[in-house]
Design a protein that fits this description.
224 residues; alpha/beta; 4-stranded mixed beta sheet; two-stranded antiparallel sheet; 10 strands
Length: 224
C-alpha cells in the first residue's frame, strides 16, 4: 500500500517490474504479467501457478483497500498517508488482515515527518524501539549512533571531513573510516521492554553507506 495509487503505479514501473525482469524465479512466477502496458495488471499481478498474487493499493483510495483479504502487507511511506473519503486508511488496511488474526504480518516503513502527528513515529513509539548498536573501535563499548553525539563535533567554520562521533563511555574519537567495521559487527537491541510489544527498528543516515558523515554535517550547516 502506497500513499496514492499514482505512487503505486510509479513503484510498479520503476522498482517491481525491473526486479521481476532481473530475477529468474520471479520472472517465471509472474510470466503472465510481463507487459507494462497491460492496464489490467497495473495494480493486480497473479502468479502463473495461481498460488499467490501481488495487489498494489493506494491509501488515498478506500476502494483499493477493500474486498480482498491479505495475510502479508507492506505499508510504504506511511508518514505521507492522508485520510481518504472513508476515513483512516491505516485502519482500513488493517481490516484486510482480519481473516488471519493470528497469522497476519504487516511491515510499516517510512521516513518520519511532522512530530506528534507522524504515523510512523507513533508506530515506533508503540514498538519495542530497537536501535542498531555498534562497538567503539577503540574501547569496544556498545552504543547507538545518535544525532546529538555527531552534532557536538560540528562547527560552522569547520572542515566537514573532521566531523566525528565520540564514544559515550570513554570519549574515544570515532571517525568515518571506522564505520564499515562497526556496522559489520552491529546488532539490534530493544530499548522498550516493559511489556510484550511488536518489533520496531530505527535507522538514520549515519548508518547508511550511501551517505557520508561529512555530507550530513554540511547539510546541517547549510540549513542553519
Amino acid at each position: 500500500v502506497h500513499p496514492t495509487l499514482d505512487n503505486g503505479k510509479l513503484w510498479d514501473d520503476t522498482k517491481w517490474q525491473p526486479f521481476v525482469e532481473q530475477t529468474e524465479n520471479l520472472c517465471k512466477a509472474f510470466s503472465n504479467n510481463k507487459s507494462r502496458d497491460n492496464k489490467n495488471r497495473a495494480y493486480f499481478k497473479q502468479r502463473t501457478d495461481k498460488r499467490g498474487f501481488l495487489r498494489i493499493s493506494g491509501a488515498n483510495s478506500s476502494s483499493s483497500l477493500s474486498m480482498i483479504s491479505i495475510r502479508r502487507m507492506v505499508k510504504d511511506d506511511l508518514a505521507k498517508w492522508e485520510n481518504n473519503e472513508a476515513g483512516d486508511p491505516d485502519a482500513q488496511a488493517n481490516s484486510r488482515m482480519g481473516a488471519w488474526e493470528f497469522d497476519a504480518k504487516c511491515l510499516n516503513i517510512s521516513t518520519p515527518l511532522i512530530k506528534d502527528v507522524c504515523r510512523i513515529s507513533k508506530k515506533y513509539d508503540q514498538s519495542d524501539k530497537r536501535k542498531r548498536m555498534v562497538p567503539c573501535p577503540t574501547c569496544g563499548h556498545w552504543h547507538s549512533l545518535e544525532w546529538e553525539n555527531l552534532k557536538h563535533s560540528i562547527r560552522p567554520d569547520m572542515d566537514p571531513n573532521e566531523v566525528h562521533f565520540t564514544c559515550p563511555a570513554n570519549g574515544c574519537v570515532i571517525e568515518q573510516r571506522h564505520r564499515a567495521d562497526m556496522l559489520a559487527q552491529g546488532r539490534w537491541e530493544a530499548t522498550q521492554t516493559d511489556r510484550p510489544r511488536p518489533p520496531g527498528y530505527h535507522l538514520w543516515q549515519a548508518y547508511s553507506n550511501l551517505r557520508s558523515w561529512a555530507s550530513i554535517a554540511d547539510g546541517w550547516i547549510t540549513a542553519k
